[in-house]
Each structure stands twice: as C-alpha cells, then as structure tokens.
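As promised in the previous annual report, we have extended the structural survey to additional targets. Below is the entry for Dihydrofolate reductase family protein.
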Amino acid sequence: MRELTYYVAVSIDGYIAGPDGEFDRFLVEGDHAAPIWARYGGTAPTALAEAAGLPVEGGPFDTVLMGWNTYAVGLPQLPSPYQHLRQIVFTRGHEAPAGAEDVEFTDRDPVEVVRELKAEEGSGIWLCGGGALAAVLRDEIDRLALKRNPVVFGDGIPLFARSSYAPEAFRPTAVTAFDSGVVLAEYARG
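The corresponding structure token record, generated without further manual editing, is:
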C-alpha cells in the first residue's frame, strides 16, 4: 500500500509560512540542500528544478497533494508546478487557471481521495501543504518529513491547523542536523 508523507519546511516554532503566507526565510541553499534533495528529489517545481539542473525523476513520490492556498503561491507563473508528478489540488470554489490542464482540482473529501490513492499502484504520495489540509488528513499521514529551519515566525500558518483531536505519537526514524541550522526530522506513524 502507498504511503502519505507530509514533507514540508517548518519554522522552529511550528509554522509552514509566516503571518502573510511568506516562506522566504526558509533556507534553500546550504550544506543541507544536496543531501535533502538526494533523499526527497522531485519535490521542487519542475521548471525551477530544471533551471537549477536538478533531476526531477526517480524521487520517492509520484503524486503531490495541495490545498488551494499552497497551489496559488505559484500563480500565474506556474499553473502546473509539478508537471513531473500527478498533481491534485483540493479546493472549493476556485476554477482551474489557464495552463493547468494536467492538474486535478477537486472538492471531494480529502480523506476519501487519499484512501483511494493509497489503494492504487504507484510510489509515495506527497502532501506538500497546507496546514488546514494536513489537519484534515492527519489520520491518513503515514510519515512526517520536516525540514526545520532556524527561524521563528511567531505567527502564521501552522504545521497543522487547529482541530479537536487527541494527541498522537509518531516515532522518529531519522534526525539529521546540518551546519546551516536546518534539521531534517523524519517520523513514522506509531
């Protein structure tokens, strides 16, 4: 069965973006970049990866899931950001923009969609954002891969939006600290 991995950059105080949706304080260069790309290749928008000379094939994921706000960060320049992956955007009330013919937009229940995806053949499923979608899918997330950055936002979009659920433990599978201050912390359910 396929697994859902929430792979995302996060501040040390638990935000995936600042108060105005900004994420430009996350480090994209440094001694962490190559090792993390080796582990999670294919997780940059296709055009950006190609411009940087990074291969997009052979990564751990063949499907990427996004909420509308995460998807809309790249508009209008990147209406199909991850052309090398199957792209599914969860939205209510937004229409597909021009150039997004290979992006699936759905208002279906995310849990139902993820359960169907897990039953299909393929490799991993990547939840790349955002916090509200992660909260809805919390019980379906098999793995967490958090790129903790040495920055404090103080407010913003939390890793998981507020919701009423009981605490649940994930067990650490790997923690790698880099001189840049980035820490890749990986966890598995239970």
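The longest helix spans residues 110-119. The first strand starts at residue 4 and ends at 11. These points will be discussed at the next consortium meeting with the crystallography subgroup.
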